[in-house]
Amino acid sequence: MGKLTIDSLDLKGKKVLVRCDFNVPLNDDTTIRDDKRIFDAIPTLKKVLSEGGKLILMSHFGRPKGKVVPEMSLKPVAERLKDLLGKNVILAPDCIGKEVENIVSAMSDGDVVLLENLRFHPEETDGNDNFARKLATLGDIYINDAFGVCHRAHASVSIIAKYLKNIASGYLLGKEIEYIGGAMRDPQKPLAAILAGIKIDGKIDVINKFIEIADKIFIAGGIANTMLKAQGFEIGNSIFEEDKIDTAKEILLKAEKNNTKIFLPVDMLCGKEFKNDTETMYVDTEKQQPGWIAMGVGPKTVEQYKTELADCKTLLWNGPMSVFEFENFAKETFEIAKIVADYTQNNGLISIIGGGDTAAAVKQAGFAEKFSHVSTGGGAALEYMEGKHLPGIESITEKGFEMKRKFLIAGNWKMNKNVHESIEFAQELTKSIVNDDNVDIMIAPTYTSLYPVYETIKKSHIELGSQDIFWEKSGAFTGKISADMLKSAGVKYTIIGHSERRQYFGETDATVNKRTKVALEAGFVPVVCVGEILEEREKGVEKEVVKRQVVEALKDIQLNDFLHFVIAYEPVWAIGTGKTASPEQAQEMHAYIRSIIKNIYNEELAQATRILYGGSLNPKNAQELLSQIDIDGGLIGGAALKVDDFSTIAKIAQGIK
Ligand code: 13P
Question: Which of 39, 82, 197, 290 is the residue whose CA sits 20 to 30 A from 219?
């Protein structure tokens, strides 16, 4: 599983097109007011230069609406880049065309060219194919590091990915995917969200999403006022939306049904007028007075946040809790920022701040460095939190950015090793395998050795697998072992539909499906084996065969059940024969299996599913096979019977980051 991030690409001598977001604010005299966006891009840019790549930078700047607007030239950015990179930066007169091509072809390794504002061409925001192709011809590699525009299907953001083979995320975008993407896909629970804003419409999708996935939602601002009004509270002259009262009621009802706790402010900081210097008072929510305006939450609400966030493991925060731009109303927002910063530093909370205003608030509060992640995107962060697929990220993931799949190195012992040998082997293995967060290890001994091996490995991070599972729960089935029995022996994974079972014991697609269902129901991680025989590959029908096996195995299995599923691709002609599929053959089939999962379920799940390779995997070929982008580990037979070989393969997986 090589990750398609900037670190996994060979950049030397390559023309590397990097899409940045250099849309920085300018002063009236066209000097840069805040260079954060340029500054934050530097690690990615330096990486390309230090590896000996030719750096070609692309960005938009303002909204010139498809025309050349000299005031929106990237010239000031080029100047600042020179300072920050400590080297010359050539500003091209345009972003496509003959002159630009000539400049690029004259580049030496380590040179930097900044293409002129992409939005001088209407084709950029139109997402024009031809324009994207012209941009693509300038480079060998495309790196996207512009999260702020990833929700736009613009030519340089997503369309361009069609025309280049090597694409990846830069460091900035990688971090957004890791934090926001990770929290939305697989959050550490309890998961909380703080959502504030003036209008329900702007936040309705994100609220609905969090009602589905979060444990606690804290709501403030105008949205909270509308919800309070919907419940019959007096809210004085506070901002609310008359026409959204019913929507507010629906949200509250939906949250109740989903068992998601919604916290509205219990007290308010009210002002007489909407300005900084005005008479203020703190008041309990139910005692608000006519004529006053709620402009922030009060101290009791801050206390409530402190208590309720104490046990949370992940927090996404979008929207400040008060009108913090007015100095006299900033205190509570800053106090909540401090609480979140403390929990992040001392409580293991993963805190993610999204949205321009919230980022500005935490920066002003002085804690920006203390959160796990402060997003660089406004609209993009919000859409990502709504669970939407962002074109800029999708185009990278589709081509291979792996979504933090962990390796699984699994040993299938088949009919080898008696109880004593198994225990001895397991003991040695616990000593020789190094614990690593990125690599799961599983061993699957014979039935008789399951429990004794479990006793041996239970304090290590090695997990136990069974080589099969029967679909009936109990009864007169002489010779069979049920899910419950396996569970009581300490089993976590179960191998299903191994080709040897298909070949010798009458295993069919239908029985594989039955076993898979029972395994999921019992809470095991099924490792479903698929793979073609030699004759099928020679006939060129291997994909058809594998597709049928995958589709049939997953028949009637719902999305929610599927989450921990593992597939093992084991070409039968490679098992125990010493013949391996070539890395290219294996990668092709793994990518194909992933596309089948995408078609059955969705892209996210396809990206999250681990697909193992099996068939004469050994310490010699492991590096090359496991480095393939869609190979997420191995199901190993022969080499799993030797402690050294098996631990060496695990070590190789640990080395591929
Ligand atoms: P070998 O690694 O011995 O080829 O076996 C692969 C296998 O069948 C694992 O399930």
Answer: 290
Cα of 642 from ligand 1 centre, angstroms: 13
**CA dist., res. 248 & res. 142, Å (int):** 44
Cα separation, 49 vs 302, whole angstroms: 47
Order of strands, sheet of 373-374, starting from the edge strand that comes earlier in the sequence = 261-263, 216-220, 191-196, 314-318, 350-353, 373-374
Pairing verdict, β 15-19 and 141-144: parallel
Tokens of 450: 């399951």
The catalytically annotated residue of 121, 498, 507, 532 is 498
| SS3 letters across 521-577 | HCCCEEEEEECCCHHHHHCCCHHHHHHHHHHHHCCCCCHHHHCCCEEEECCHHHCCC
The two tokens of residue 199 are 């209008």
Query: In 3D, which of 478, 479, 568, 474 has the Cα closest to residue 516?
Result: 568
Give me the residues paired with residue 57 across strands.
Answer: 18, 114
CA distance 365 to 330: 9
Residue 29 CB burial class (10 angstroms; 0-12, 13-18, ≥19): exposed
How far, in Å, is the centroid of ligand 1 from the Cα of 534? 15
107: Cα separation from own chain's centroid: 35
Whether residue 443 has its Cβ less than 6 Å from ligand 1: no
Confidence of residue 197 (pLDDT cuts 50, 70, 90): confident
pLDDT tens sequence across 411-462: 999 999 999 999 999 999 999 988 777 799 999 999 999 999 999 999 889 9
State the helix-helix crossing angle for 542-553 and 583-600, rounded to 10 degrees: 40
- How many Å apart are CA 466 and CA 235, to the nearest integer? 61
Domains of the chain, CATH where assigned: 2-169 (3.40.50.1260), 178-385 (3.40.50.1260), 408-656 (3.20.20.70)
Cα 169 to chain centroid distance, Å, stands at 12
CB-count burial class (<10 Å; 0-12, 13-18, 19+) for 551: middle
pLDDT value of position 171: 93
Q: Could you give the CA distance from residue 650 to residue 654 in angstroms, rounded to a whole number?
A: 6
pLDDT tens digits, one per residue of 56-111: 999 999 999 999 999 999 999 999 999 999 999 999 999 999 999 999 999 999 99
- pTM higher than the cut 0.90: no
498 an active-site residue? yes
**How many Å lie between the centroid of ligand 1 and the Cα of residue 626?**
15
Report which of residues 200 and 500 the model is more confident about. 500
Taking the C-alpha atoms of residue 16 and residue 453, their distance in angstroms, rounded to an integer, is 51
Half-sphere exposure of 573 (CA within 13 A, CB side): 12
Dihedral sign of CA atoms 227, 233, 239, 245 in order: positive
β-bridge mates for residue 439, sequence order: 407
The verdict on the CB of residue 638 being under 6 Å from ligand 1 is yes
Of all residues in the chain, the percent with pLDDT exceeding 70 is 97
CA angle 629, 632, 633 (to 5 degrees): 130
